[in-house]
Task: structure prediction
Amino acid sequence: MRPYLREKKDFSFAEVPENTSFEAGYLVSANSGWRSVRPVIDSGKCVGCEQCYLYCPDGVISIKDGKAVIDYDFCKGCGICAKICKPGAIGMEAERK
Amino acid sequence: MANKVADSISREEFFYGHKACAGCGGSLAVRAALKVLGQNAVSVLPAGCMSAVGFNFPQLCFSNNSIISTFAGTASMLTGVEAGLRARGYKDFTAVGFAGDGGTADIGIQALSGAIDRNDNIIYICYDNEAYMNTGIQKSGLTPFGARTTTTPAGANIHGNIRPKKNMFEIAAAHDIPYAATASVGYIADFIAKVQKAAQIKGTKYIHVIAPCPTGWGVAPDETVDIAREVVDCGLWYLAEYENGGFTLDHKPKEFTDVAAYLKKQGRFRHLSDEDIQVIIESRDRKWEHINKTFSYKNSL
Result:
């Protein structure tokens, strides 16, 4: 399973549990706001060699139907995938708000 | 197009949504190691980047059981985790520690030495980013000669760190440990193979992986993997293993790439003079003379 973004719940001090409180991989805040550039995959050029999947420090790349797919909630836009990609299938584009 | 390395490890993510800097080499090492060891790995992390970025309540970035230890006690807590689970009858688990270079070579070296001495069945992974990066780049025992940190600033008289890097790999090997290895996140398949091998060996295992820190090294975030390869290619780091009392070199660059080019790419080395670089090249050549004399060679890249 790939951990996913959940809704952040507010709770009062009395409700704070005394021991481990949430299930493992409980994520409530995204990292997408860190990006100034985003990787974009050209699925026509992607050969599914999985080098980007292996080298992504955040593990946001997965392979679906033989092509790389990015989880933009947690991609920080470091650009390692674009550099590692031999066929040149990943380009970095400026983030626009 | 199948990738054998990707197929040999778990497709699940066990270190996800963490708050490490973009392009962090340490988080890549932790992620890859946990994908090898799987759901039943119990990870122990001392104070350091990976515990600071992994446990931000209520954000829980580890999908396996993980715990923060005292700074000095990574290896002793691993001993306890392993003994406790064994006493409760668990068989299928791996106790694995992820400590930084400071937590391994300076603060945690006594606990690590004790664990190796007892030959506890644990894996200890040191992700080496060559300074105390989490607290803002202070010199550790594994900071290389000439590197600028906040506690070894580069001035007119003293050009950064004046001491060479400790040889943690050979310190661990000197305990006659069952398995020790060096790796680099730039050669991830080699690192993954070493973690796989360590998981099959009984006793204490030590893996030392170079994990560049773009923030502390002064390189762009997308350079992490390239610089982790270049440090091996220029001969300032090497991929080796220690097993059954002997050292094996896993990769011998045909010809070393330019050391000055490697150094000048990084902000922490930019102040170095030609004489300083000559000192670094000479110490590298001495190191390789020692390696060529005492290590056997088997190309496994």
Remarks:
- The mean pLDDT of chain A is 90.
- The first helix of chain A runs from residue 51 to 55.
